[in-house]
Amino acid sequence: MVMDTIQVRLGPGLVKKIDSLVDTGVYSSRSDVLRDAVRRLVIDKLIGIIPNEGDSVAEVRDLRKKLSKEKFDLGEINKLA
């Protein structure tokens, strides 16, 4: 899978927190930290619009798979809030 590259500017305090997560082995790279944070943001924005039918754990798992493989427009996601 080909991923797009984006540039993000963060303050030094936040970078230290990210590096700490990598240094302690919670994540393998800075990119992994940021990808997970964006996925969590997207899922948080979608809570309340996902129908609560059946197995919600499976629904979230499927949504995570979809988000990790598909491109999406953050502008469209922000309109959901």
Keyword list:
single chain; 81 residues; mainly alpha; 4 helices; 0% strand; globular
Question: Can you put this structure into words, describing what you see?
Answer:
This protein is an all-alpha fold and 81 residues long. It has one domain. Helix content is 59%, strand content 0%. It has helices spanning 12-23, 30-46, 56-69, 74-78. The longest helix is centred in the middle third of the chain and has 17 residues, at 30-46. The radius of gyration is 15 Å and the shape is globular. The model has no long low-confidence stretch (mean pLDDT 79).
Percent range of helical residues: 55-70%
Low-confidence stretches: none
Order of helices and strands: HHHH
Oligomer: single chain
Taken together, the total number of domains comes to 1
Radius of gyration: 15 Å
Strand content: under 5%
Main pleated sheet? none
Distance between the ends: 29 Å
According to DSSP, the number of beta strands is 0
Structural class: mainly alpha
Average pLDDT, to the nearest integer?
79
Shape: globular
**How many helices in DSSP terms?**
4
Describe the structure concisely:
Helix content is 59%, strand content 0%. It has 81 residues and is mainly α.
